[in-house]
Amino acid sequence: MAHPVGQAGIGVGTWAWGNQFLWGYDPSQDPVLEATFQRAVACGLHTFDTADSYGTGRFNGRSEALLGRFAAALPAAQRDQLLVATKLAPFPWRLGRRGYDRAFAASKRRLAGRIDLVQLHWSTARYAPWQEDPLLEGLADLVQQGEVAALGVSNMGPRRLRAVHRRLAERGVPPSSLQVQLSLLAPNPVQPGGVAEVCRELGIRLIAYSPLALGLLARSMADGPLPRGPRGALFRRLAPALVELQAEMARIAASRDASLAAVALNWCRAHGALPIPGLRRPEQVEQAAAALAWNLSEEERRRLDDLALGLDVGMPANPFQSD
């Protein structure tokens, strides 16, 4: 795999906040989610990532609304330390350079007026290439108008990222970040020729979503019943092939008195990516924050790289991921 540069921090993903289908969200969970948010801030996890499409059914937009409410309740000094990032979905009806104006305004309302990084949620290059460039131009307008500090992109491969960077850099608003699925079960971005190399070359921050593979990399075989629904079905399909990988992760975790989740997160960090695990409980925050106290050795990273590349299974690819 590509040789990493430096160690990144750890952020917080909020996909599960409002998602009933995959994560079983219920409004009764909101106090625990707020406690999770507060613990994350106290532990130094200051980057929070959300999206205007997070929250299923009647809870659409719930993730942004919860994050906005929790952030607004912080003392000003703590609030100023946050980096609030959201993603706008390129739905088919969002067209043209002004196609995101209403969506951005709605997200900003839900987020209590605070957006530091706005991101294109996925690339339309594979199915509606004509839609993407005008939407990105509109996001660049928002940066130049002072509405938001920076723009980022998501789910782009090396070729598309280079093209987007070239176009936006000509306007003086190059993308500051790229968010892709990256984990030991989705290692393609950090393979030779992968998008991680382009990010290092162009000075783009690489953000790793699903760094724990929906939680599979945070659990051992002895952790009891599998989750219900689609996550459980995925775990049952993948788990039998992960015995050797999980044994190596367990060995590393034991040597550091750390969790499996910390090993998975530090593998992303060792490749220069900022992992944003989905955190729903304060104890999950503790596990994630503990990973910041240590780093993988080069030898440990290489062993994990080899095991990840040798797997015959992996996470499902995002259907909107561009080349």
Task: Describe the structure concisely.
Pfam families: Aldo_ket_red (PF00248). By secondary structure, the protein is α/β, with parallel strands linked by helices.
Keywords:
single chain; 323 residues; alpha/beta; TIM Barrel; eight-stranded parallel beta sheet; 8 strands; globular
Task: Give a description of the structure.
This protein has 323 residues and is of the alpha/beta class. It has helices at 20-23, 30-42, 62-72, 76-79, 101-110, 129-144, 158-170, 195-202, 229-238, 243-256, 260-270, 282-290, 298-309; strands spanning 12-13, 47-49, 83-88, 117-120, 150-154, 177-181, 205-209, 273-275. An eight-stranded parallel beta sheet has the order 1-2-3-4-5-6-7-8. Helix 2 (30-42) crosses helix 3, helix 2 (30-42) packs parallel to helix 12 and helix 10 packs antiparallel against helix 13. The mean pLDDT is 93. Residues 10-307 form the NADP-dependent oxidoreductase domain. It comes from Cyanobium usitatum str. Tous.
